[in-house]
Amino acid sequence: MSGSGYTISEHRPDASETPRLANPDAFKGQTVIVTGGTGKIGLQICRSLAASGANVVVSDIRADPVHLLVKELTAEGYSALAVPLSAVEGKKIVEQTLQKYGSLHAIVQPIIAPFQFIPFEKMPAEEFRNTFESDVMGPIAVMQAAWPHFQKQKYGRIVNFTSGAIFGMELASTYPTTKGALLGLNKTLAEEGAPYNITVNCISPVGLYMEKQAKGVQDMLAKANGPFLKASVPVANVPMVLALAHKNNKASGEIFYTAAYGVFRHSMGMTTGLTDCTTVEKCLEKVPGIMDRGFRQIMEPFSAHALGEYQAAYFLGTEKDFKAPSHL
């Protein structure tokens, strides 16, 4: 914690803190770009991919940590390329990758910009712009540069990173705003990528070195669930990240919450709701019923089109016969 700002822990695990998480040849012949590759989770992803046979492209805005990690990986006999660039320079990252390896199969993007703990009314607009540029435009730039290549080869795996902060994070409005922006893109790209065997998913990780965090952050996190968070070290997120980047993965458009070697599925849906909300007074009267958590039947639309079809079916009273692609 520096002033009112949140900064990532400076703890840098050595190789002994990265257990083997996949078979040595699980990613043999695969080239994977990891943006934010020297962060607390990114570093573990790079090490695990390298140990699983991948050509690992380590990209991050901080040049020294990038070169240090690649030096360590190559000294161990692994294949790695240093690309010390911000993700917003996605075109250059992809160009250098293809120039070196002639191929690209997956993109993993554990990017997180430092953010401020400031009340919303005092949050400078520039903070929103800076965080959006890093956490949203960065991943977009890399994906756009790689997308034509993925389409041509009819294969691609993309893993972006969101956060549980999308459910609300007091005094840190920039962070959940940017992480939430990736969710709509996640579903959209999953639809566009499906004909080309391109899968796009989001990971919502918990990755902390509790003893290495600044005191203020430790206190805040300990109030949530201290023992659980102590088990939620960064590497505990990596198995699911690699699974989504693997050639055998078929899931797409999904959001997975990972922590302490556990995996949970985030869902976005719509309750059965109430009709006849024809006046302000009726809407106000019906809000408690609409909010009633007893409405447990949740419609999870695969797309905006499916959502529209369901809404129309509900209006007509035929929702029980609704057959559009969905999870109920």
UniProtKB/TrEMBL annotation:
Keywords from the UniProt entry: Oxidoreductase
Where does the source fall among the domains of life? Eukaryota
Q: Which InterPro entries does the entry link to?
A: NAD(P)-bd_dom_sf, Peroxisomal_Beta-Oxidation, SDR_fam
Q: Which GO terms describe its molecular function?
A: oxidoreductase activity
Instruction: List every stretch annotated Disordered.
Output: 1-23
State whether keyword Oxidoreductase applies: yes
Pfam families named in the record: adh_short
Q: Which residues form the signal peptide?
A: none
The UniProt similarity line reads:
Belongs to the short-chain dehydrogenases/reductases (SDR) family.
Under the heading PANTHER family, the entry gives: DEHYDROGENASES, SHORT CHAIN, SCP2 DOMAIN-CONTAINING PROTEIN
* Protein known as: NAD(P)-binding protein
